[in-house]
Amino acid sequence: MGKTNENQVKEENNTVVTKAEKKQEKKEGKVKAFLKKKNIEISAKRYFIDAMGAMANGLFASLLIGTIIGTLGQQLGVELLVEIGGFAKTVSGPAMAVAIAYALQAPPLVLFSMLAVGTAANSLGGAGGPLAVLVIAIIATELGKLVSKETKVDILVTPLVSICSGVLLAMLIAPYIGTAASYVGNLIMLATELRPFMMGMLVSVIVGIALTLPISSAAICAALNLTGLAGGAAVAGCCAQMVGFAVMSFKENKVGGLVSQGIGTSMLQMGNIVKNPRVWIPPILTSAITGPLATCLFKMEMNGEAISSGMGTCGLVGQIGVYTGWVNDVAAGTKGAITAMDWIGLILISFVLPAVLTWVFGLICRKLAWIKDGDLKL
């Protein structure tokens, strides 16, 4: 009898557990269905690849292009261009937030609401504003998507939730996010000043790898406000990847591949890297050499916009950023003049050394049969 009662109790407990599990599964199923309906996908790809890539585009279409236009205006003495560049630079926060919301496939009312959110987050985030915009715009966009078209007064509710949640978050956490990002960026820059060889190598290799991976090296540099010697090392690493892959794969991809990778992006090689990781060895080795040369020998600094540090030769943005920094330094009196050594260093680090070194390392890898014909075909 005792065993029978004990078995009955166990069966009843199992039944209760099963019912509870089914109820929980049903509840989770409803939540998943609702999130799917709202096109909310909680994943590293969407938040750290898609959103960051879009943020870099937003920065490029505002702060970066504005800086280039403004610098061109200053050099040519055309005040109109200076004014146009100034207007473009002032909307960097909204541009980033809208770009992020676009990448998250936000509905129109949420998308437009990010203008206010981006302005608040970037302004309150200070030097680390881009990182604050990334975090806050993602949260505000997803909250806006949750309520979008759920009420009959959607035109009021959706922007209300999107803007209020985003701006309140900006007021609460943007200063802290900005401070943390600035601290990390300053730490990297200080370490590069103190240990230019080792840090020049590390920054060059890491940022160069980030450029080729499907994440945004430009957004990372912008978020950390990476400038100075560390910014110069970042430029070196990115150039090593872009120019390196372009030259090393010329046999397979000819002029089209030279252009698309050399002034486009080395990310085009990601599929080939997955198939044969050894094709990545030559540009990584090159970045490990050009980074320390940039910091120790040529003292190449990126004192333009931080986003330029992670752009390499993409549209020659990295080189324009370095030049802009020279102009700013001369205007501020911290640099006497732009010297021939400056130009030699920029050309060697950006173009000549990445092309020659990667070609040599690539030739060695081909001799060792680590890289075969066709491995770099786009």
Could you please describe the fold and organization of this structure?
The protein has 15 helices and no strands. It is mainly α. It folds into 2 domains: 44-182, no CATH class; 196-367, no CATH class. The longest helix has 41 residues, at 154-194. The chain is globular. It starts with a helix and ends in an 11-residue tail after the last helix. The mean pLDDT is 90.
Give a short summary of the structure.
With 378 residues, this protein is mainly α. It folds into two domains: 44-182, no CATH class; 196-367, no CATH class. It has helices at residues 2-37, 44-76, 79-90, 92-103, 108-125, 129-147, 154-194, 196-212, 217-224, 228-248, 250-262, 270-275, 281-297, 317-332, 340-367.
Topology:
Elements: H1 2-37, H2 44-76, H3 79-90, H4 92-103, H5 108-125, H6 129-147, H7 154-194, H8 196-212, H9 217-224, H10 228-248, H11 250-262, H12 270-275, H13 281-297, H14 317-332, H15 340-367
Helix pairs in contact: 2-3, 2-4, 2-9, 2-14, 4-5, 4-6, 5-6, 5-7, 6-7, 6-9, 7-8, 7-10, 8-9, 8-10, 8-13, 10-11, 10-13, 10-15, 13-15
Distance between the termini: 76 Å
Strands, count: 0
The gross shape turns out to be globular
Write down the secondary-structure element order: HHHHHHHHHHHHHHH
Mean pLDDT score: 90
- Determine the structural class based on helices, strands and strand pairing: mainly alpha
Q: Please work out how many helical segments DSSP would assign.
A: 15
Give the number of domains: 2
Contiguous runs where pLDDT drops below 50 for at least 5 residues: none
- Considering DSSP H and I runs of 4 or more, what fraction of the residues is helical? over 70%
Sheet of most strands: none
Query: What's the gyration radius in Å?
Result: 25 Å
The share of residues in extended strands comes to under 5%
